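Standup notes, protein team

Yesterday: finished cleaning the Phocicoccus schoeneichii set.
Today: Aldo-keto reductase YhdN structure.
Blockers: none.

Input for Aldo-keto reductase YhdN:
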Amino acid sequence: MKYIITKDNQSISRFSLGCMNLPLGNTKEINDILRLALEFGVNFFDTADLYQYGRNEATVGPLLHDYMKHFDIKIGTKVGNEFDSALREKIRWNPSGDYINRAAIDSKLRLGIPSIDLYQLHGGTIEDNIDETIATFEELKRRGIIKSYGISSIRKNVIDYYKENSNIATLMTDLSILKTQGEEFLDENIVTLARGGLMQGLLSNKHENVLEKKFKKGTYGYTYDELKQMLMMLTDYNHSLESIAFKYLDYMNVVTLNGVSSAKQLEQNIGHYLDAESISNDEIKEIRGNIKTLYYENHRE
């Protein structure tokens, strides 16, 4: 496994696990997923307080705790969506200092860890009191509640503000070999955590079914026919679509954040990730050259 070091000297595995879709009702299956990930060399696990309204944190943290004596484990979580855990519903977007302070303590307790390795703002708008949010993250860091902070966003104006006015160590954003908008945000001083690399299964051996079920109306930057044409182009190469997708992310020097719901799915994705090593940089550059560069049109100023 290769690792990437953040500006806060945190080592993050280049292939990491997104926990949002873990089968929370099946503790054995989750344990199998976590164990397989750790044995492969995964050391970063991403969750959020909003996932299942706190239940995801409360499940993942204690299960990972059993492995912490034997593995270097980093846990990241996210904040900003105020919710009612009893009613299991979101109340509002709330990036205020008071709320983030309370939420950080709640997340730390649910996770059962002395300090949150990476705390990310779970969205954000340019209308927020961003300076207050930044000051709160910095204070949490000084107090040792968190070790590092970042944001999860696809809004250029928000991302630019944080880059220029804060010490964010990470940016989580959408990025895949077909959905290339996130390339614009890449920064050598900030570690990019790429979500959506397989595009909900579109970049997989099930791409024909996924195209019909999820992308009949196309997606941002592509019509249905354009997506079909791109998939035909990619399948002409002698590699699985998953391996091409993973190689692209590795070539872009980002962390691949892979979300799974079963150990079998993770095992398959690990296989494709390893197979991606057989794809040369020249070949992935050629493939990328056949794909258009996209930009988000909104939230730029």
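Follow-up from PR in the comments: The first strand starts at residue 3 and ends at 5.
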